Structures are given as structure tokens and as C-alpha cells.
Amino acid sequence: MTAVRGAGGSTNNEASFETRPYKLHRLDEPPQASTTCTRDDALLYYRQMQIIRRLESASGNLYKEKAVRGFCHLYSGQEAICVGIRGALRPEDSVITAYRDHGWAYVMGCSVVGTCLCVFT
Fold first, then answer.
1. What is the pLDDT of residue 2?
2. SS3 state at 38
3. Where is the Dehydrogenase E1 component domain (predicted)?
4. Cα within 13 Å of Cα(100), Cβ side
5. What is the mean pLDDT of residues 20-27?
6. Where are the beta strands (DSSP E) in the chain?
7. What span, in angstroms and rounded, lies between the C-alpha atoms of 13 and 7?
8. What is the pLDDT of residue 10?
9. What single DSSP character describes residue 32?
10. Contact 106, 48 (CB under 8 A)
11. Shortest CA distance to 56 belongs to which of 36, 37, 75?
12. Neighbours of 73 (CB within 10 A)
């Protein structure tokens, strides 16, 4: 990672990251060796992770109150996975999941209310 603080303590609006070389599997060319994350992107990712955590906390509370029947497998602590992968996907890409999927539903475009309603069906 490159430094995000400039001279005099000023803050840059982006951070750059480089990956280490690794072996490829079924790829002709490797992905880019470096990437940049802007301040706006980082704030978006943080907000998404916070929303997912709150959504999971609310779902867990509803489950404990026995308002949810059946199972309630939560995604707490794993928010960065779906947020980070979603950040790397193209708009036309899709994801299939059937387990611990509240975070995925949200980052793929489902509203918070719509995602929360799935625990009642």
C-alpha cells in the first residue's frame, strides 16, 4: 500500500495497492498487479458493511424473539467478503448463493427492507 498521508499531514483521496505474483489457474493473463481505491469507494464499502452488519443484527434479534421461524444463518463478521467481491464484479455479473445470503442480496441491489423480509418467508 502506498502512503495516504501527504506532506504536512494532508490526506490523499486515494490509496494504491500492489499484489504479489501468484500462479494462475485457467487464465491466459493475470489480473492487474495494482489497484487504486478512492476515498469515495472506501466510504461506500464501509457504509455497505455497516448496513449489512445492522441488517444481520436486526435479523438475529428477530430470530431470538421467535419472530422468525426456521433457521437464521447470519453473515456477521463476513461483510467484507460480499462487499469486496461485489466491488470487483462487472455490472452484468451475477452471483448465486443459498446460504448466509443477506449481505449478498443487499450488495447485488435488493433493498434493506426486501432483504429483511426474506427471513419471514
1. 45
2. strand
3. 47-114
4. 10
5. 90
6. 14-18, 34-38
7. 14
8. 62
9. P
10. yes
11. 75
12. 11
Cell representation of residue 71: 433457521
pLDDT at residue 65 above 80? yes
When computed from its CA atoms, the radius of gyration of the chain, rounded to whole angstroms, is 18
CA gap 95, 41 in Å, rounded: 21
**Contact by Cβ (8 Å): 55, 116:** yes
Query: What is the Cα–Cα distance from 103 to 77, expressed in whole angstroms?
Result: 11
The C-alpha cell at 86 is: 461485489
Per the listing, cell 489480473 goes with 31
pLDDT, tens digit, for every residue of 101-111? 899 999 999 99
Bridge partners of 34? 18
What grid cell was written down for 34?
A: 495494482
- With beta carbons less than 8 A apart as the criterion, state whether 24 and 39 touch: no
pLDDT computed for residue 98 by the predictor: 84
Please check whether residue 92 is in contact with residue 117, taking contact to mean a CB–CB distance below 8 angstroms.
no
